[in-house]
Every structure is written in C-alpha cells, then in structure tokens.
Design a protein that fits this description.
Helices cover 48% and strands 20% of the residues. With 175 residues, the protein is α+β, with helices and mostly antiparallel strands. The chain crosses the membrane at residues 91-114, 126-145.
Length: 175
C-alpha cells in the first residue's frame, strides 16, 4: 500500500511547509485575497505579492495568538510558497530571549557554586540556590509557552484549514 503524503500533512510534526505552484506571484496573491475576502468574517491579515500574514479573528487577543506567515518566492521557473505557523515573531523572540537568559544565568550560578566547592571558599553561598531559581524560571517559561500553545490550538486548526483550502489546490509536484 502506497500512501501519498501532501505538503500540508507534514505540518502536524513541523509547523513549516514549502510547496511549488504553477501560478505567478501576482496570481497567487490575488487568489489569497479572493479567499480572504470570501472568509473576511473569520480571517484577517495583510497580503501582497511577496508576503502574506493571516490571523484568525477572535474576541480575545492572547500573547500566543498564532498566525500563518506565507512568503512567495520565485525559484527557477517555479513559484515557491513557504509557510510558517506560529506566534508572532515578537512573541517567539521574547520566549527565546527568556530561555537564553535564564540558561546563561543558570550556567553562571552553577559554575560559581562548583568553583566555590573546588577551592573550598564560602564567598557565594547563594549560588546553588540561585541556580535552582533559574531552573524554576526556565520551567515556568516552558509552562507559559505550552499554555499559550494550548490556548491557540483552535486557531491553529483554522489556519491549517485556511492553508489547505487556499493553497493546496494550486500545488505543483516537482521531481
């Protein structure tokens, strides 16, 4: 049995996709605008011939509100569409900054504790406690991210449906 996997089926394990189409950049952007106009009560966003950003309209706006970012590029004689599902780039950058900062601080405090023990000093008695606080903050950041992902799950499904209905019909198989 040979099961065919479409481009958008890979989204389940990775929130990125790339597909090729026979349409030009302008034609694809126009088709997206028409689809968006037909579903204007459900979706909002900006579309031009290079980039499209699609969001689901909701009555609330949380920090992890997902969006679909589409980049339309010309590759050789084909038009490539690259899509990324996820929160806004500002939110993504903020969470990566928190992970990076807390991780560096954890390594610093743990190194201070370790060096203190090696040289039998008592200058930094708080270093081990501070390293555990940093581990707790890393865990808290992770929980906040997972909570945001959980809250945005329904919008992610709507964005996936948007991508399937507006884009998959124009996919061109390249070998």
């Amino acid at each position: 049995m040979n099961t065919e996997e479409s481009t958008l089926d890979r989204i389940r394990t990775r929130p990125r996709f790339k597909m090729f189409t026979h349409l030009t950049k302008e034609e694809y952007a126009e088709n997206l605008k028409q689809y968006m106009e037909a579903h204007k009560d459900e979706f909002s966003g900006n579309i031009n011939k290079e980039v499209a950003t699609i969001r689901v309209k909701t009555e609330y706006d949380n920090y992890w509100k997902p969006c679909l970012a589409l980049r339309i590029e010309a590759e050789d004689e084909h038009t490539a569409i690259r899509g990324v599902f996820g929160p806004s780039s500002a939110v993504w950058t903020f969470f990566m900054f928190l992970y990076f900062s807390f991780s560096i601080l954890w390594m610093t405090f743990f190194t201070m504790y370790y060096v203190e023990k090696q040289i039998k000093s008592a200058e930094y008695p708080w270093a081990l406690s501070a390293s555990f606080v940093m581990l707790f903050l890393i865990l808290l950041t992770y929980i906040a991210a997972r909570f945001g992902q959980h809250k945005g799950k329904e919008e992610m499904l709507k964005l996936r449906r948007f991508a399937e209905e507006s884009t998959l019909q124009f996919e061109k198989k390249i070998n």
